[in-house]
Amino acid sequence: MMKGHDMKKSDEAMAWWREARFGLFIHWGLYAIPAGVWKGVENPFIAEWIMKVFQIPVKEYEQLAGDFNPVKFDAEEWVRVAKEAGMKYIVITAKHHDGFAMYDSKVSDYDIVDATPFGRDPMKELAEACRKEGIRLCFYYSHVQDWHHPDALGNPWDYPSGQELTVYNWEEEKQKPTFPRYLEEKAKPQVRELLTQYGPIGLLWYDTPYDMTKEQSKEMTDLVREIQPDCIVGGRVGNEVGDYEEMDDNEIPAAALDGDWQVPATMNDTWGFKKNDHNWKSTQTLLRLLVDIVSKGGNFLLNVGPTAEGLIPQPSLERLAEMGRWLEINGEAIYGSKPNPFGSEFDWGTVTVQSPDGTNPARMYLHFFDWPAEPFVLDGVRNKVTQAFLLADTSRQALNVAPEYIENVDHHRLTIDLPAQAPDENVSVVVLELDGDVDIDTTPAQRADGRITLSAVHADVHAAGDGTGPARHKGVVENWLDEKDWLSWRFKVLEPGTFDIVVVTAEGGYHGESQWDGGHEITLAVADTKLASTINADERVYNPRCVYWQDVLSNVGKVTIKKAGVHTLEVRPDKIVTAWKQGFRLKSVKLVPRP
Ligand code: H79
After folding, report:
1. 55 CB near ligand 1 (under 6 Å)
2. First-to-last C-alpha distance (Å) of the chain
3. pLDDT at 175
């Protein structure tokens, strides 16, 4: 039998989290006082990093505690805000990298009860309020960086470690020999306090595992398992020993992952409060991110950064309330739903599913971002549709659905008549009730508008070498570094013709950095045509599904396909460029019909 860290959470223990889908992240700490400005100088980075960005000495940063008096803090109000937003859990910073505990800690006096005039324990008040409202309370705990502790990672300006460290080479930081002492003297005892002082905790959200050894990550996991076996361990405990995978900050994959996962995301461009950051994402953008992430099987952990007075910024409150109103109407398409069974992204929106459960038939939810002007055509559904209606329409007026079977290419197609007006300005949901569980033909097929999209998700990967080659992961081809590896797709052509071929690659990178490798040379083969081409950035397009990173389009050439039927397309690289070590991050190949 497996034990301890080797034992991932049971389905039962993960059930609440899979049902929940939407949580509130709260970054609150001393950094809310400078709020992004130190001695008149703007911190261009995230607010909670101000101590590190300006290398503020511990003795000076500590002084902030004497001014921290958030008298407007109201735990019940914060919990009500989360609940009315349709969120099911709250993750709050119990201790961030600055080392300051936002709860009553006996391990150190550097905490909100002992060191501030406020003197209250907000975690105690939040635990109480969450219990009343049925919201799961969860804690963020920075277990590796602690700029206040001499043995931890991150503060070489007060505690030289013999390494040349600047704020810009934070990724290079290595454990100092004294690091285990910090783990034993501070991190572990504080996590123990958090798991014993506030009742049941839903999730322990660790962060920045940088140089943790696997053994250390296991220890931090086992600690949670031992005290609260049902508490979920966040993916950033490190070394893949957590209960689910946490994306990078604001990173949204282009397709479902194999296991459970979550996206932590900012509403503007900071986690902690910054008085000069007004770059708020719109409610529409945020709602679409929620829907898109859920349709890929993930959870959305959306952040607010309360002020030093204890108030959640007004723009955040407005957006959360609007999201809550949408979820009140459309929640059944979100909570406990299953991912998009088609596997790849649609231009018009996305899909979620509720499986049949004995009482209810299977339902497929079409989430429209762009409302179709013409009758909507959905390809690949083999089920019979027993009913169709708008989720927002309480009268359940039936929508007409015309099924079609195109025999020569064994293809199923539905045409759905939709009203002229979208029922919702942000995301409009159409329900298809099905006989039996969802049965989808995922072979890429030409759409009614003539376009064909071959997604990484549906590619056959031909890895030449030792198994370390490319893989389809997060909706792109990752680790495609070797020219011997190639891809192919089988796809259905319904209307022959001449097509422009566009290869779509994806930017990646960390923290607003946009990195992209181009210049790969490829040979693309389809329908007796071979096209040699170089993957250049002919166009960069904003990707509303991830906001911070763009899609890059590269024109490869044109091809004429003369016959309807199943065809094959191959992409074989002649040269792969790996300047940024990510290689050829292919997301899709598009065939666009020529007029
Ligand atoms: O808590 C939030 C962030 O503070 C934390 N994760 C989320 C949930 C986080 N820890 N580390 N990082 C994020 C990576 C941070 C990198 C940077 Fe920087 C900080 C880039 C810009 C500011 C370091 C300092 C590099 C440049 C300046």
Report:
1. no
2. 63
3. 72
